[in-house]
Amino acid sequence: MLALRPNCECCDKDLPPESAEARICTFECTFCADCVESRLGGMCPNCGGNLVARPIRPAHLLAKYPASTERVLKRHKACAA
Q1: Would 79 be classed as within a structural domain?
Q2: Is 80 within a domain?
């Protein structure tokens, strides 16, 4: 089950479960679309894998399978602006 992390680990932008802006890699590193396009070149700075749109969990399932509330923020070289 995807964790649905609540923020971009590059700029700390909020990414709620319904956000179409969230991008993830195979390890669920989570970034916003802006950082992926403007800073990361479509590649995860942690694993080097590609970043794709995160699926949106249907609202009626969030009560049973809630999104993570743990924020992850890593200061990657590419994120320093």
Answers
A1: no
A2: no
Beta strands 52-53 and 22-24, pairing class: antiparallel
40 has a pLDDT exceeding 70: yes
Q: Tell me if 21 sits within 8 A of 5, measured CB to CB.
A: no
Say which DSSP state 66 is in. Answer: P
Q: How many domains does the chain have?
A: 1
Pairwise CA distance, residues 8 & 63, whole Å: 23
Q: Which of 1, 78, 2, 81 is nearest to 45 (CA)?
A: 78
- The end-to-end CA distance of the chain, in Å, is 33
Domain that holds residue 68: 1-74
What span, in angstroms and rounded, lies between the C-alpha atoms of 51 and 70? 20
pTM for the full predicted model: 0.91
CATH code, domain carrying 8 = 3.30.40
Element (H, E) at 37: helix 33-38
